[in-house]
From TrEMBL:
This is RDD domain-containing protein. Residues 8-163 form the RDD domain. Keywords: Membrane, Transmembrane, Transmembrane helix. The keyword Transmembrane applies. It comes from Candidatus Woesebacteria bacterium RIFCSPHIGHO2_01_FULL_37_10. One of its GO terms (biological process) is proteolysis. GO terms for molecular function: serine-type endopeptidase activity. InterPro entries: Peptidase_S1_PA, Peptidase_S1C, RDD. The lineage of its organism: Bacteria, Candidatus Woeseibacteriota.
Length: 382
């Protein structure tokens, strides 16, 4: 059958077909590999951080890997690409080398590189109507595929060449995911902001409190979730979703839950020692349990008190914040904050009874200090 050599421009619709097929394979691969994985940004990293860049690089390089596998397998099977096959085109060289053809397909995004390999495109002078129609459609598809290829190349350059930071904290650059911000009494945020980030943790036989430290992480006490690694999370907007224990430290009664939650600004942690004991108002926010409250339906409560003391247990390696803000069962895991919505600590226990005098105690409520929480969060979240 008589054949004719084709114009170099026929490579454009051929490449468009292969790029569109590879794009579908790439999309499926991304969904399968990353659908249950929270992004680094959701885990609290700044968009410009090394961590986010690393995850972006994985996704971008997956595209290159998908193309390499696709083009290699197809060219080995058919001695050409699916684009050539669907458009009725053959690869031709002076020695009909399969090696040349394989490399020609793999490097086809360079469009004219096959000329350096001595490979030309040929097709029968008599082609059926289907091939003619498909060539037209492929030419139209190139209006999407070629700009998509250029965008992909741009993203590669941007991901690998753009400068990176290590945090999105506007107050201090600590080089970690979570930081203690400098004391700021201008109150850029308030209690309403913190209330929107506090969640109720509902298990089969318990309720507790936690708060969002990123778009996919909830901080709470370990004793709240130690019996059930998978719980329900009720947000302030009524949204209910599932979360599971991501990591925990029973010794510090600290646990991180992972899930997909409502996006919002992140809570700020401050060093309690930057504020005056006995003069700073604090607020405990949470979902206290009660026989009159049905699990998962009770309102969020706020109790106020004074920053009583900062307790540093150096030998044990942790610090507590003492307050007389009322904390009841169910409040465990909730934030203890100042009027600016800055977190002093996480409510963890109340001392209600003196075993030596049998007297009822009031105003002895404790929170794990932010100075203990922040380093532990950076360790657990990694």
């Amino acid at each position: 059958m008589e054949e004719k050599h084709l114009s170099y421009w026929i490579r454009i619709p051929v490449l468009a077909v292969d790029l569109l097929i590879a794009a579908v394979l790439y999309l499926v691969s991304v969904i399968v590999l990353f659908r249950n994985t929270p992004t680094a940004a959701e885990l609290g990293y700044n968009i410009g951080s090394q961590q986010v860049a690393g995850q972006q690089s994985q996704v971008i390089l997956l595209g290159a890997l998908v193309w390499l596998v696709y083009s290699l397998l197809v060219s080995l099977l058919f001695n050409k690409s699916l684009g050539h096959l669907l458009l009725g085109i053959k690869l031709s060289s002076h020695d009909n080398s399969k090696f040349r053809n394989v490399f020609s397909v793999i490097l086809s995004p360079l469009v004219f590189f096959d000329k350096l390999l001595g490979v030309s495109l040929v097709r029968s002078r008599k082609i059926n109507p289907f091939i003619k129609v498909f060539t037209v459609l492929a030419s139209l598809g190139s209006l999407i595929a070629i700009p998509g290829l250029l965008l992909y190349v741009f993203l590669i350059g941007f991901i690998f060449l753009a400068p990176r930071t290590s945090t999105d904290d506007n107050f201090t650059l600590c080089g970690e995911r979570f930081c203690l911000v400098k004391a700021n009494t201008s109150c850029e945020k308030n209690l309403d902001f913190v209330r929107s980030r506090v969640v109720e943790i509902v298990g089969k036989n318990f309720t507790g409190t936690g708060f969002l430290i990123s778009d996919s992480l909830v901080l709470t006490n370990y004793h709240v979730v130690e019996q059930e690694p998978v719980v329900s999370i009720r947000e302030s907007n009524g949204r209910i979703s599932e979360a599971k224990v991501y990591n925990a430290n029973p010794d510090l009664d600290t646990a991180i839950l992972v899930g997909q939650f409502t996006k919002g600004e992140h809570i700020q942690f401050v060093n309690p020692t930057d504020f005056g004991e006995g003069t700073t108002d604090l607020y405990a926010i949470g979902f206290p349990s009660s026989v009159l409250r049905q699990a998962g339906t009770g309102p969020l409560t706020v109790t106020s008190g004074i920053y009583s003391a900062f307790l540093d247990y150096k030998d044990e390696g942790f610090q507590l914040v003492q307050t007389d803000a009322a904390a009841n069962p169910g409040n465990s895991g909730g934030p203890l904050v100042n009027k600016c919505g800055q977190v002093f600590g996480m409510v963890t226990l109340s001392e209600k009874f003196d075993p030596y005098t049998n007297e009822i105690k009031e105003g002895l409520n404790y929170a794990i200090s932010s100075t203990t929480l922040v380093p532990e969060l950076n360790r657990l979240s990694n």
